[in-house]
Specification:
The protein is an alpha/beta fold and about 400 residues long. The chain is built from 15 helices and 14 strands. The structure holds adenosine-5'-diphosphate.
């Protein structure tokens, strides 16, 4: 029977085209795994669709006519209505993935007006992602005033980077004003760093590169599970080629486009966040790796090859920073699921002494390298929501 007095925590992870959410038992020291299930909420053409998988494997679906974008209040209303009706127990708190936490070194914090002011002030540094992350916090504060809210930052995991990694070659005064590398995907890296000892003691203690390869993609160089270098920078545009973002790009291209093509900041922002990467290189075929893999067009093959090259090139740079490499971990939608892309990346690391088996049907959480390989390689599933829940539940139970 459903226990309506049991408190539960809602975790919201707002992406560019969907909201991933999870529910957790928020009782102090629950007897079993506190995760009650995971859901996704997507807007597809004229329809809003919600799918929820309970921890016992059962599935529920719902849909409504489209109201507006995924982080819009109208849309959140349908989603929140469904969650409240179907949650075992009552919602006592919500926790959010927030892409930019500025200089904050702790992953989680209780939301209050001062923190919201700080996070709002960071919008110019993450103009597309930050407002989307903050919208549900505003919405819940307005419509569900009694709910405790927590924010967890994607930047905090990288507070251990030293100045040689955070500084660009800009005038010192600009660096001091915050024009520096922050790094992102920290919640995913924190999850992987947390589970590494369960899989591979050498990877946990040694020099390990984690490749988070999803629509957004980056690398993080870990030594003893601490972030030492990362490819994303001041913004989420830097580093690897991504679904619709270019990754590392000569800033001279931007100056040229401004001068010779009359592009302003808005036009450049649209180009860099929405029209580049796999989508742009493939000539508009797709930003999605699965669709590109299914295509026989040469431009699709070239886009995948450029993605692989950018990952291999940056693995070389991260290895240099670490002074060698003990392990490579592949995660995110592509790293967890695409055997051809994984194999191409591992082939590109043969010079490091990485030898791998090319099985097309490797399960998640599997070792990819051969026993004699100098560098071990794994594909591990990430779980950002578990990290958000862990921080929020700790703060909740400590009375924050
Ligand atoms: P996000 O950054 O939006 O969280 P994900 O981590 O979900 O992204 O990764 C999405 C990417 O993973 C897409 O490019 C998608 O095509 C790719 N992907 C997911 N499943 C597969 C698969 N089975 N084969 C190849 N690519 C896949």
């Amino acid at each position: 029977m459903t226990d309506h007095s049991r408190p539960s925590l809602l975790v919201l992870n707002v992406g560019s085209s969907s909201v991933k959410f999870s529910l957790y038992d928020a009782t102090d020291a629950p007897a079993q795994d506190p995760c009650l299930g995971h859901g996704t909420f997507e807007v597809h053409r004229d329809t809003e669709r919600l799918i929820f998988r309970h921890a016992d494997g059962t599935r529920q679906n719902a849909q409504w006519p489209r109201t507006d974008g995924p982080a819009d209040s109208g849309t959140l209303r349908n989603m929140m209505g469904w969650i409240e009706q179907h949650t075992e127990g009552h919602l006592c708190a919500a926790a959010h993935r927030v892409v930019h936490g500025g200089d904050r070194t702790l992953t989680g914090a209780r939301v209050d007006p001062a923190l919201m002011g700080e996070l709002q002030a960071l919008i110019p540094m993450a103009p597309l992602h930050q407002p989307r992350c903050l919208a549900p916090i505003h919405y819940l504060a307005r419509e569900h005033g009694g709910l405790a809210q927590y924010a967890c930052f994607d930047t905090a995991f990288h507070h251990t980077l030293d100045p040689l990694e955070t500084s660009f070659g800009l005038p010192r005064a600009m660096t001091e004003q915050g024009l520096r590398r922050y790094g992102f995907h920290g919640l995913s890296y924190e999850y992987i760093a947390g589970v590494l000892p369960e899989y591979d003691e050498r990877a946990a203690k040694g020099r390990t590169i984690v490749a988070h390869l999803g629509n957004g993609a980056s690398l993080c160089a870990l030594h003893n599970r601490v972030s030492r270098a990362t490819t994303m920078g001041f913004s989420t545009l830097d580093g690897l080629l991504m679904g619709t973002r270019p990754g590392r790009l000569d800033p001279g291209v931007l100056l040229y486009l401004m001068r010779e093509r009359g592009m302003d900041a808005e036009a450049l922002e649209d180009l860099l966040y929405h029209q580049c990467g796999l989508l742009g290189v493939s000539g508009g075929i797709a930003s999605d790796m699965r669709e590109l893999g299914d295509s026989t067009a040469p431009a699709a093959t070239q886009a995948i090859a450029l993605f692989v090259r950018s990952v291999v090139r940056e693995i070389g740079a991260m290895t240099a920073v670490l002074g060698g490499l003990d392990a490579l971990i592949l995660t995110g939608g592509i790293g967890e699921n695409s055997a051809p892309v994984r194999n191409a990346i591992l082939d590109g690391c043969a010079w490091l002494g990485l030898q791998h088996s090319s099985s097309p049907n490797t399960p998640q959480g599997a070792c990819l390298s051969l026993p004699d390989s100098k560098v071990c390689a794994w594909t591990l599933p990430t779980d950002e929501n578990a990290v958000i829940a862990r921080h929020a539940l700790k703060l909740l139970h400590s009375g924050a």
